[in-house]
Amino acid sequence: MSQEFIINEELAGLINDVVKKFPLDKKRSAVIESLLILQHHNRGFITKNIIKALSDYLSVSEIDIYEVATFYTMINTVPVGKNVIAVCNNVSCMLRGSDQILSYIENKLKIKVGESTSDNKFYLKDEIECLAACNGGPMMQINHKNYENLTLEKVDQILENINDD
Amino acid sequence: MTIKLCTDTFDLKDPGSLKTYLDNNGYLAWKNIVKEQTPKSKIIEKIKDSGLRGKGGAGFLTGLKWSFIPLMDGQKYLVCNSDESEPGTCKDRDILRYNPHAVIEGMLIASYAIGASVGYNYLRGEFMDEQWKVFNDALSEAYEEKLIGENILSSNITIDLHALIGAGAYIVGEETAMLESIEGKRGMPRIKPPFPAIKGLYDKPTIINNTETLASVPKIMLNEPGWYKSLGVDDSEGMKIFCMSGHINNPGNFEIALGTPFSDLLDLAGGIFNQKNIKAVIPGGSSVPVVKGEVMMKVNMDYDSITEVGSMLGSGGVIVMDESTCMVSVLHRISRFYYSESCGQCTPCREGTGWLYKILTNIISGNGTQNDLHQLERIATQIEGHCICALGDAAAMPVRSFLKNFWSEFEYYVDKKESMVS
Amino acid sequence: MKVFINDKEYNANPDETIIELCDKVGIHIPRFCYHKHLSVVASCRMCLVDVEGVKYAQPACSTPLRDEMRVSTGSEKTKIAQKNSMEFLLINHPLDCPICDQGGECELQDISLEHGDDHSQYMQFKRVVVDKDISPLISTDMTRCIHCSRCVRFGEEISNVKELGLLNRGEDMKIDVFIEEGVSSELSANMIDLCPVGALNNKPYRYKARTWDLKQICGISPHDCIGSNINYHIYNNKIVRAVPSENSEINQTWLSDRDRFGYEGIYAKDRAEKTLIKVDGKLVEIDFDSMSHQVNDLISKNIKEYGQENIGCLISGQSTSEEHFLFQKIFKKLGITNIDHRTKESDFSYQDSYPIMPSLGCNLNDLKKYKNIILVGVNVKTEYPVLSIRLNALAKNNTKVYSFNFNSLEENFSLHHKQIITHDNIDLFLNTSNFSLENGETLFIIGPSVSRSPNQSSILRKISEFSSSIDANIGFLTEFCNSTSGWLLGNLPHRELGGGKPRQIGKNSYEMIKSHLSSYIFYNLEPEFDFFNKQDLEHALDTSKCNIFFTSYITPIIEKYADIIIPITTFAETDGGYINIEGTYQTFQPIVQPSKNIHVGWSILNDILKLNNLGDYSIDEIRGELAESLDGLNFSTPVSDMSDINSNNDMENVIVHDLSRETNETDLIVRRSESLRQVSLMNKKINNKNIISQSDNLQTNVTK
Ligand SMILES: Cc1cc2nc3c(=O)[nH]c(=O)nc-3n(C[C@H](O)[C@H](O)[C@H](O)COP(=O)(O)O)c2cc1C
Ligand code: SF4
Ligand code: FES
Question: What is the pTM of this model?
Answer without folding.
Answer: 0.94
